[in-house]
Amino acid sequence: MTFPSTIRGTGLLLLAAVLLPACTSSSSQEPAEPPRVSVTPEPDQQRVRVQVGGERFTSYLFDSRRQELAKPVLHPIHMAEGTSITRGYPINPRPGERVDHPHHIGHWLNYGDVNGLDFWNNTGEVPEEERSEYGHIVHRSVEAAESGAGEGVLDVQMDWRGPDDETLLREDTRFVFRAGPDRRVIDRVTRLTATDQRVEMTDNKEGFVAVRVRRELEHMPEGPVRIVGPDGTPMDEEVEHSEGVSGQYVNNDGVTGRAVWGQRSPWVLLKGVVEGDSVGVAILDHPKNVGHPTYWHARGYGLFSANPLGQSIFSEGEEQLNFALGSGESVTFRYRILVLSGDPSPSTLRSEYDQWSRMNPSLADASE
């Protein structure tokens, strides 16, 4: 399978404006070369490693040996300074971080009701007698892994399967990883294709494209929490703990904090301070997506998620989508994840969104 160059071509035209430092007034100075983004499959480790200038950016993990992974994920995700913005638990627990929702790992895309099966909440902790209620996503292949100056590309295929291993949806995803001074960017374009049956994605709050952020980017807790103890294992009891917590959501309409949950917005920004460095993490919807502008399933405890499909939940029944695909039908979703060093303003995000919305990332011309 080969993919068109739509995303890469458009992205390269934008690199000079977005990723490169501004040129000085001296005509003798050449613009700095963008850092090399390396995308390296490591099949023995069941992962694809992504680095910027030899330093870690993220990894695509599909390790079927790990019970925690009921779907492929990107984990961890690092800011330009090298610090991770994602929670380590349950893969690599860090002392002081919150212990909950073991299915929240790095960045992922799935949904809570696909032909009645829950793909969102599935983990190795689901009791055997309840597994018939859950679906899982299986990595099939790495179709392309390309490295380059300023950006790298990873094309993968996955299957959305039921408990009997029957494939309901085939997933084709392209990740474009971009890097520049004080920024890391992940563009995700995902095409879902129903196989030989109708697939219904009934309105559900559990979805859809998400990042689980680290403790410092959470909002202040509203009571005791269960955390990882100093020895790296989860504590048995909940404790009062808010050390370093500094997160604050803001959306395009100026709604802030926990109130962004259940609101429509083309983007949401989460700001905070991680190990002394200010950072803004944003998820950008795209005008071509179903349900645009998306609703947000963004929680103060660190779940940062856009959900365009759960409309009746977020609108308290005033809207209803109940999205479905007939046999052989496809739908494409496009999202951008931004990790911006510093303290980005809402006006900065509006500019970033305007740029993203004018791009046309598509897999429509991919050959089967």
Sum this structure up briefly.
It is built from three helices and 19 strands. The protein has helices at residues 6-18, 311-314, 346-358; strands at residues 36-42, 47-52, 55-61, 73-77, 107-111, 136-146, 148-149, 151-161, 167-180, 183-194, 199-201, 207-212, 248-251, 267-274, 277-284, 295-296, 303-307, 323-325, 330-341.
What would you say this structure looks like, in words?
This protein is mainly beta and 368 residues long. The chain has 3 helices and 19 strands. The strands form 4 sheets. Strands 6-8-9-10-19-15-14-13 form an 8-stranded antiparallel beta sheet. A 5-stranded antiparallel beta sheet has the order 4-3-2-1-7, with no helix packed on it. It starts with 5 loop residues before the first helix and ends in a 10-residue tail after the last helix. The N terminus and C terminus are likely disordered.
